[in-house]
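Justification of computing resources. Each target in the renewal requires a structure prediction run like the one illustrated here; the chain below, 451 residues long, is used simply to show the kind of job we budget for.
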Amino acid sequence: MAHLDRRLFLRSAGLAAAEVFGGKLHLLAAGAPGQGKSFGPNDQIQIALIGAGGQGQGDTHWAVQVPGVKLVAVADCYDGRLQHCKETWGQDIFTTRDYREILSRKDVDAVIIATPDHWHKQAAIDAMNAGKDVYCEKPMIHLYSDGHAMIDCAQKTGRIIQIGSQRVSSVVYAKAKELLAAGAIGKLNMVNACWDRSTAMGAWSYTVPLDANPETCDWPRFLGTAPKIPYNAERFFQWRKWKDYGTGVAGDLFVHLFSGTHFITGSHGPTRGMATGGLRYWKDGRDVDDVMLALFDYPEGFNLNLRVNLISGGQENEAFLFTGEEGTMEISKGALTVTRSPRPKDPGYTVGTFTNAMQKSLLDAHTAKFPIEHPSGEPSASTEKYTTPNGYSDSYDHFHNFFDSVRSRKPVVEDAVFGLRAAGAALLSTESIERGSVVHWDPEKMILAKT
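Resulting structure tokens:
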């Protein structure tokens, strides 16, 4: 609780600190504080975790810090993770390999689904049909056919479902959305976004535990609908490296960049995209690329240029650059930098190669049409930076928003429609590489479109 108290203190200090910085540097106040709230045992939201790998346990760490939330059950296909969840959150936690046992429990109100991608659809649909609200990790889908089934189930059951691209709840992204809508950089014409990684862990070569074997790992349950092959520890613990269970860099990282772009711009998605890439370095048996670049056209009149590189020579970097007619907005390392550079009304001239008489005539006409507005020169660009207090977490805010919706039944910030529009657009990248051509997408109907 000491960690939580410190973070909440920093949240409450946000506005005061912003005044200290003043000028061109602004400290953003946290978006979803939990102070002053208490819930009795009968008011708690009781949750279960389905898929207790690194992402699942990380999600749970933030979820249980939201006031009035308690973890009561965990499902995973590896016994060691079930044991570790008991070590972390209490021996009274119910654990099982079969998530259906969790869904039958009346003491579970909502579930976090952090399974491999190929289990997202079935686990989410089973949970909603069992009356549970759902927080489903990104990407929402493994296959295009998954998405509409999940949307239809949410609408039919009336259950809350939030997709786990936490940047959608970030105060930095909210500020970027506000500034773009207010015209801070003029009309948007291009978005460049990247996510670079430089380590084996960043390239999904996760550690395999010493006791991994067919007895401690429920291999048949892990496989689910995937092709039936003999037990393979690397595929079990490093599943992102294979298309049978994951969606490669498109579903793991591109989807965050699409989610951020769509949230900030308000767009429903691109109309077409093309991509290229390759497996350049991590030739360890995986069948997904470690470098991918893609370009997308948006109906609002801007282009999105994406890059993911799992073999970067530098540090990990996640960044956006929004370029408009009058400036730029850059999101990097948890901060937003806005540079305003209004375009001069005077287009300038190039007359030096003409006759002196022609030069004079052209300059006189130019001066008459574009009188000097700033005798001392055009105003220089201005820059403002918005940052968050130390300890800020958009993961906490994302779960706070989810649980607020569970209590109020109001719409979440990232529902299944938003999730499909982001994941569906991201998977255009692998679709384009496999086809070797431009791929068309209908962002309203959320389907692959005919050319």
